[in-house]
Amino acid sequence: MAEYEVVIIGGGPAGLTAGLYASRSGLRSLLLERGVLGGQMVNARLVENYPGFPGGISGFDLGSAMHQQAIRYGLETRVTEVKRVVAGQTLGVVTSEGDCDAGSVIIATGSEYSKLGVPGEEKLVGRGVSYCATCDGFLFRDQEVAVVGGGDTAISDALELSQHCKKVYVIHRRAQLRASQVLQEQAFSQPQIEFIWDTVVTEVLGDGQVDSLALRNVKTGEMSRLHVGGIFVAVGLKPNSRCFVDLLDLTEAGHIITDGEMGTSVKGIFAAGDIRHKSVRQISTAVGDGATAAMSAFRYLRG
């Protein structure tokens, strides 16, 4: 018999919900998370579109509540990094802290921040380069900063930073935003926010601390320099599926392909949340995925 009936990899909203449903169903359940329980959700200053909270709730508080609810029913959690999953009569989960056997596995590893991939970016992470305005925005109080991107995350970050910073430049490679209309209207009405259109960052500059950005206009090719004390990169997310490449069927972008019951190409392995191929990536859909995956795992184990 496997050590655990269900091992859940990832502690975001999908993983925590799967843990809640699995443990409530009486399954011996373990959740493995390499970072912070709550996943990317904990970085949201205010979640306004999750049902049941008409006034909104911070992502940190929502993640904490989900965690407390899950462990109340017996879910075991462990902070460790999963290296790989080995398919066999039982499923082996190899981690940096040791191995465990599972009757079924639910993968809910979510996504990570995409990087610009330009000189100076990696060297100055934590020294002016950030991927989380909610986490680091207060460090730049009364300074001038830049946000790179044009989607909901970038504009939300710019609005967040405008509460702390003297000036916020939004650098976008196109001439119009992809963010929702509501966020666009809020940003355009905020005097601290200035938009730099049709432009990309080619280098992050600074000696031990960001002091400027090298920019290129994609239409004219003109080069310029923007003096800022920080840069917040919000150019998308990529799925955390590297250790499943040789095990499961993935899309070209790296998302796990599932059926409607969250089943993958390997029997007994399920996937939920942003790691799987789907059209909508929201906390509410991740929660639904997690519940479905747990119930599918229950039926698989008892079938």
Overview of this protein structure:
The chain folds into two domains: 4-112 and 237-302, FAD/NAD(P)-binding domain, CATH 3.50.50.60; 115-233, FAD/NAD(P)-binding domain, CATH 3.50.50. 22% of the residues lie in helices and 27% in strands. It has six helices and 17 strands. Strands 1, 2, 3, 4, 5, 6 and 17 form a seven-stranded mixed β-sheet that branches. A five-stranded parallel β-sheet has the order 8-15-9-10-11, covered by helices on one side. Helix 4 links the parallel strand 9 (144-148) and strand 10 (167-171). Helix 1 (13-24) runs parallel beside helix 2 (59-72), helix 1 runs parallel beside helix 6 (283-302) and helix 4 (152-161) packs parallel to helix 5. The model has no long low-confidence stretch (mean pLDDT 93).
Q: What is the name of the CATH superfamily of the largest domain?
A: FAD/NAD(P)-binding domain
Number of strands: 17
Distance between the termini: 15 Å
The computed structural class is alpha/beta
Query: Mind summarizing the main beta sheet?
Result: 7 strands, mixed
| CATH A-level architecture of the largest domain | 3-Layer(bba) Sandwich
Question: What is the string of SSEs from the N terminus onward?
Answer: EHEHEEEEEEHEHEHEEEEEEEH
Radius of gyration: 21 Å
Total domain count: 2
- List the total number of helices: 6
Write the SSE topology:
Layout: E1 4-9, H1 13-24, E2 29-33, H2 59-72, E3 76-79, E4 82-86, E5 91-95, E6 98-107, E7 111-113, E8 129-130, H3 133-136, E9 144-148, H4 152-161, E10 167-171, H5 181-188, E11 193-196, E12 199-205, E13 212-217, E14 223-226, E15 230-233, E16 237-239, E17 269-271, H6 283-302
Parallel strand pairs: 1-2, 1-6, 2-3, 6-17, 8-15, 9-10, 9-15, 10-11
Antiparallel strand pairs: 4-5, 5-6, 7-16, 12-13, 13-14
Helix pairs in contact: 1-2, 1-6, 4-5
